[in-house]
Amino acid sequence: QVQLVESGGGLVQAGGSLRLSCAASGVTFASYVVGWFRQAPGKEREFVARIRWSETYTDYADSVKGRFTISRDNAKNTVYLQMDSLKPEDTAVYYCAAGGPPYQTNYRDERVFPHWGRGTQVTVSS
């Protein structure tokens, strides 16, 4: 069984920072692509960031580029999302997702991730 657990969410003021963690069990993250998605109230879930399992290559949504940083610690089987300069529009439930092998083409599409965490709430006040 593959299980992902997000943590690190909370309530912060605009301009503040949070670091989210995604800890995995039943899987070795070194072999997986890991992504972060978020879902704001009343909106569809959207892609935030992803990191390639084998390399340091990262990808970000335009809305968070330059403010968020995804990183990986394979020894701890954990992926992080450092969120700086937070804005009220970043308020959402943030989900960790993992996929592969076998690897897919578009990891901005949530449908290619078979494993998901339950989410952690991030609230940014204005």
Structural account:
The strands form two sheets. Strands 2, 4, 5, 6, 9, 10 and 11 form a seven-stranded mixed sheet that branches. This protein has a four-stranded antiparallel sheet with strand order 1-3-8-7, with no helix packed on it. The radius of gyration is 13 Å and the shape is globular. It has strands at 3-7, 10-13, 18-25, 33-39, 46-51, 58-60, 68-73, 78-83, 92-99, 115-116, 120-125. The protein is 0% helix and 48% strand. A hairpin with a 4-residue loop joins strand 7 (68-73) and strand 8 (78-83). It is built from no helices and eleven strands. It is mainly beta and 126 residues long. 34% of the residues are buried.
Which residues sit in consecutive blocks of at least 5 with pLDDT less than 50?
none
Tell the overall outline. globular
Number of strands: 11
Number of helices: 0
Instruction: Report Rg.
Output: 13 Å
Largest sheet: 7 strands, mixed
How much of the sequence lies in strands comes to over 45%
Coarse structural class: mainly beta
Helix and strand pattern: EEEEEEEEEEE
Q: What is the average of the pLDDT values? A: 93
Helix content: under 10%
Termini separation: 40 Å
